[in-house]
Design a protein that fits this description.
This protein is an alpha+beta fold. The chain has helices spanning 5-8, 10-17, 57-64, 116-122, 185-196, 202-211, 213-226, and strands spanning 27-30, 33-35, 46-50, 71-85, 97-114, 130-135, 140-142, 147-148, 151-156, 169-170, 175-176, 182-183, 235-237. The strands form 3 sheets. Strands 1, 2, 3, 4, 5, 7, 8 and 11 form an 8-stranded antiparallel beta sheet that branches. A 3-stranded antiparallel beta sheet has the order 9-6-13, with no helix packed on it.
């Protein structure tokens, strides 16, 4: 019996594992791992909504390493939104998340409280497909009882993957009153394979756009061409300057 390459190949495990180890609790990200949440550390920091892998300690460690200031990561529920698939492939093979305005749905997210220094690290990992934006008139209910009406988020500008008329939500992200069809990451990758390379082995399909940047770009362009338009709540795109 052949082994499942998505359980043995590190690259495929990473691709299909998105959005990774999302916790159900708030925590402080310290030295590349979880520590108890300390709300006092939020002072002077910016609330940035993490709705895909930026909720994950594993992904935060990939971005910040182990030598960083403590980062408070606070669980929250965001009203009138859902998390769907963005119309692009990541360099590590996944179909990433996008935040979508969806009246009546409430979705589980994290709020990463980031300093200016930490934002400077985060921005280059997101700007190829997302605009850093300030969202207003929100209802963002934080773990602990507070509510925010303003927060920042990275909003996909490439459109949202759909089934023809509706975007497809990430099954791995918890939501209340979800109104959209949902797929897990591996199912979503298989759907993209069926659309772009029917009959191909799924592992080979995913490896191809991991290993070949031009093929990844071409597939991303096809996704974007066929995508449903993005739908965002009231927001303002924030101009950012990357450090050289």
């Amino acid at each position: 019996m052949n082994e499942d390459p998505f359980k043995t190949d590190p690259a495929l495990i990473r691709a299909a594992g998105y959005p990774y180890d999302i916790t159900a609790h708030s925590f402080t990200f310290v030295a590349g791992t979880e520590a108890p949440f300390d709300a006092r550390l939020r002072e002077g920091r910016h609330p940035v909504i993490g709705y895909g892998s930026n909720q994950s300690p594993l992904r935060l460690r990939q971005k910040y390493g182990t030598d960083h200031a403590p980062i408070p990561v606070q669980r929250a529920w965001l009203a009138d939104h859902d998390v769907v698939y963005s119309a692009h492939f990541s360099s590590y093979g996944s179909l990433p998340a996008a935040l979508r305005h969806m009246p009546g749905t409430r979705v589980a997210v994290a709020v990463n409280w980031l300093s200016d220094i930490e934002l400077a690290v985060m921005h280059p990992t997101e700007i190829d497909s997302y605009h850093f934006s300030k969202l207003v008139n929100l209802r963002l209910d934080l773990d602990g009882g507070e509510t925010l009406d303003t927060a920042f988020a990275y909003l996909s500008f490439r459109g949202h993957v759909g089934d023809g008329t509706r975007p497809i939500a990430l099954r791995e992200i918890q939501a209340e009153n979800r109104q959209l069809p949902e797929l897990g990451q591996r199912e979503a990758l298989a759907l993209m394979r069926d659309r772009m390379a029917p009959g191909n082995d799924l592992a080979d399909f995913v490896r191809r756009h991991i290993e070949d940047a031009r093929e990844r770009e071409n597939r991303g362009a096809r996704l974007e061409r066929d995508a449903l338009p993005s739908a965002h709540a009231e927001h303002e795109v924030v101009e950012i300057q990357l450090r050289s």
